[in-house]
Write a structure and sequence with these properties.
The complex is a heterodimer of chains A (204) and B (82).
Chain A lengths: L7 H5 L4 H23 L7 H17 L10 H21 L5 H11 L14 H16 L3 H11 L4 H8 L3 H21 L4 H7 L3
Chain B lengths: L9 H13 L7 H17 L5 H12 L1 H16 L2
Helix pairs in contact in B: 2-3, 2-4, 3-4
The chains are: A mainly alpha (204), B mainly alpha (82).
Chain lengths: 204, 82
């Protein structure tokens, strides 16, 4: 039986313990192979990492089995979860040597009024007005946490690290970022700056 | 970090502006994106049109570099299995 022919949710829930164990082993192999393909170009991922990611992913998928709604192949859905597990851990490891104190200090600096390098303005009048409006909005319309979140993201700080630094949850952190972007967009809108102006000024 | 190092570069300001141009009132968060990204990836692979819900995945991927990284890895797996 091929992967596509297996009714994965049913097999993983099978009352026959032998059938269920076989499905769990097969799913673990699928996840392991997928992670190997996805991460084979990374020098920071060893075989031991792949084993750990596959095992952790398997548990996560089994835990979320009820959330599978059949809108994609089961294996594609499970691979997406496995990649989320693996990349979240890799991002955390990349930042694990940065102390919480250093992050908090960075966070404090990030809440200072944003500075925009003079050469960003250029000679274009529309771009100058847009950047000046944006600078004013970052400094005055965002809360310190919103400013820290948006600037942390710009500096490619992992989102999990940002929310940890701010002492909030992922969903609350995402809402904070979304609210910040909406506030900045609203300020540009009130200043009469349109989407077309933005696209023209920055060649988007 | 020296104060001058904190100054936003032209590229970073461009990133903010791009994020703002893509911002809408209702957006998927990362968890919602993860719930639907497998369907989006299969549609992309099959070059099938995407519905309204799945279009929200595309919008989130344009805004979130971490979810985009995971999506690109998923596409790599799916393409290897074709």
């Amino acid at each position: 039986m091929t992967q596509n022919e297996i009714n994965w949710p049913a097999a993983l829930r099978a009352t026959d313990s032998g059938e269920q164990a076989a499905a769990v082993r097969a799913l673990r192999d699928v996840l392991h192979n997928g992670l190997r393909i996805a991460l084979n170009s990374r020098s920071d991922v060893s075989e031991a990492h792949l084993e750990d990611f596959a095992q952790e992913s398997l548990l996560r998928v089994l835990d979320r089995l009820d959330q599978f709604q059949g809108r994609s192949k089961f294996t594609t859905w499970a691979q997406a979860i496995a990649l989320n597990v693996a990349f979240t851990e890799l991002r955390r490891k990349r930042w694990q040597d940065v102390s919480l104190d250093a992050l908090m200090a960075d966070g404090e600096r990030l809440t200072e009024p944003a500075m925009i390098a003079d050469d960003v303005l250029g000679a274009d009048e529309d771009r100058t007005r847009l950047v000046a409006t944006l600078r004013h909005a970052i400094e005055n319309d965002l809360t310190p946490k919103q400013r820290a979140a948006i600037l942390g993201e710009l500096r490619e700080m992992p989102f999990d690290q940002i929310v940890e630094m701010l002492g909030t949850s992922r969903s609350a952190g995402y809402k904070m970022l979304h609210d910040a972007r909406r506030a900045l967009k609203q300020r540009l809108h009130e200043a009469g700056i349109t989407g077309a102006d933005i696209q023209n000024a920055f060649n988007l | 970090m020296k104060p001058e190092d904190q100054r936003l570069t032209s590229e970073q300001v461009g990133s903010i502006v791009k994020m703002l141009s893509l911002t809408t009132d209702r957006e998927f968060n990362c968890a919602e994106c993860l719930q639907h990204v497998s369907e989006f990836a299969e549609c992309q692979l099959a070059k099938k049109p995407v519905g309204e819900v799945i279009a929200s995945v595309e919008q989130h991927l344009a805004l979130c570099p971490e979810c985009r990284e995971e999506y690109e890895a998923l596409m790599k797996i799916l393409k290897a299995g074709k």
